Amino acid sequence: PFASSLSPTSCCCTSFRASLLHSRILQRKMSDSAEARACFMKWKYSRHFTFLKQADKNITVICKQCPGEKKLSAAVSSTSNLLKHLTRQHRQSLLTTQKVSEGELKKMIAGYVVEEMLPLRTVESPSFRCILNKIPACGKKAALPDRKTFSTYLDKCYADMEMELKETFESLEYISTTADIWTSHNKSFLGMTAHWIDPSTFVRGHAALACERVRGRRTYVIGNEIEQVHSAYGLNSKVTATVTDNGSNFIKAFRMFQKSDSDEESEEDEEVTFTDVEQTLSTESEGQFSLPPHLRCASHTLNLIFHDVEKWLQANEAKFIYRSATSKCSAMWTKANCSSVASELVDNFFKKKLIVPVSTRWSSFHDALSRITDIPLAELNTVCTQFGIKCFTDREYLFLKEYCIVLKPLTVALDILQGEEHCYFGILLPTLEILMSRTLALQDELKLTASLPDIIAIKVRFSSMMDNKEAKLAAVTLPKFKLRWIREEEKKDMVRPMLTTECHHKNPANSTDDFFSFEEDDCTYSAETEVMEYLKSAGSELGVLSQFPRIKTISLYNTATPSSAPVERLFSLGNLVLTPRRNRLSSERFERLTLMRYNNFFKNNTAK
């Protein structure tokens, strides 16, 4: 049906698809070559060779010991050819112990202490120094660092890490951040992470920006600290959105300090006014900053849905069977967790352990119940009898089974939205659509919990997101989804022109070209044609977007993550750094150790 409309540009469609295929193949080859290089560098004799390239299942290297450029080949999975070459031609070099320079030794010590989250006093441990003395060093034997010297060296490494991040951010146009508040040892910390998509490789990148101590009135402090972190890394004009949980302190801070549309410059002529600069600079700074667009954590919203389910179970007529069934499960968890004899009995009888739920992850309660319902009722009651616990009735067992079936899609959606490496903002709406359809599809199969799917009110909890323009554009510009996640044709017909209109706004032609535009070029690749070609393309990888410049620009909406889970992972590391035995660690030192550990600074620099 689009043949007539595509005829003006049909001459370039074939070459367009060919270049698209070539781009995907090239991107795959680059990825394979990088993996082969990383694998080769782990070989203990890799220092004798320079990695050149990978071709199919073979790699090509240059021997550093041979005069000239002696090229050798070996299989990706085997280095036997290279080892034979060293044995025959450079036996003496093969047996020579590689010495470590003073700088390399310092970096290895720092990497060990930071990556393993050890106390800084480790460098003064006699047993640790004994190990270091056995490492052969180049030239004069360097003095081993004491704690104070080592702390100074870590400060230098942290400054290098900050500089590397700033250089990375300078080359990026769009970045998103996440933020959250964490309290430990009666201290509050603001954690922030940054997320981006490399415009050339489409690889997802992330880094921790802050884990700093916060004091004072939360609303203003949160807004001020977020703005300060963005400014420190030069991100104020690049942040597309900041993702936080649904806490009232964050919501209020963004409501008060978020930049509004009225702050944009007006195109109409305005009367010129003169301002007293000295008076302006001397006024109180509160309220002088602005925050980027705010996104609420989708995982936290799903958690609220689970609480809705809990309230329904406690108030509904099903509360009696729910309480009796879960109390028996709780008794089993307590017995198996507190008694080694009971734990061994479970292992021997079920050939697997029971999962004990934790209060911090509501999905763990579902996982724990699922493990119990995976056990046949007869075997389950046999163990209950040996534990001295009341046996499960058929009705209770069926209720738990249905409960797990209904909430299973919710837990799967939660795992998807809490991802990081391949998780984009555009995943949110397709995930919610599938979650709603799968949950409602279960309704006819349920007996005891038939009305439970109605309580999982996705549209109510995500009402502001369902009609969000940015969320729709983010989903459509993910090649994995495009328009496939939209079931109704009417909605597709609404989103398609929305994408086309946005492409018109992102026209790559500059104002000079527009000024000297005399007539329409028949070969011009219009926004309408680009949208149609994109929607018809078969690729599902992000690399496809390199062939669609306007849509690639619109994909900036995918920079954000759908949840604030990444910053919560930062706090998980913080718990391991700020242990009870290290609670006197200064806030600044704690932040630096945590950020270097989260960003894998020493691992990444060692690989280089």
TrEMBL record:
<dbReference type="InterPro" id="IPR012337">
    <property type="entry name" value="RNaseH-like_sf"/>
</dbReference>
<feature type="domain" description="BED-type">
    <location>
        <begin position="47"/>
        <end position="91"/>
    </location>
</feature>
<dbReference type="GO" id="GO:0003677">
    <property type="term" value="F:DNA binding"/>
</dbReference>
<dbReference type="Pfam" id="PF02892">
    <property type="entry name" value="zf-BED"/>
</dbReference>
<protein>
    <recommendedName>
        <fullName>BED-type domain-containing protein</fullName>
    </recommendedName>
</protein>
<keyword id="KW-0863">Zinc-finger</keyword>
<dbReference type="GO" id="GO:0008270">
    <property type="term" value="F:zinc ion binding"/>
</dbReference>
<keyword id="KW-0479">Metal-binding</keyword>
<keyword id="KW-0862">Zinc</keyword>
<dbReference type="InterPro" id="IPR003656">
    <property type="entry name" value="Znf_BED"/>
</dbReference>
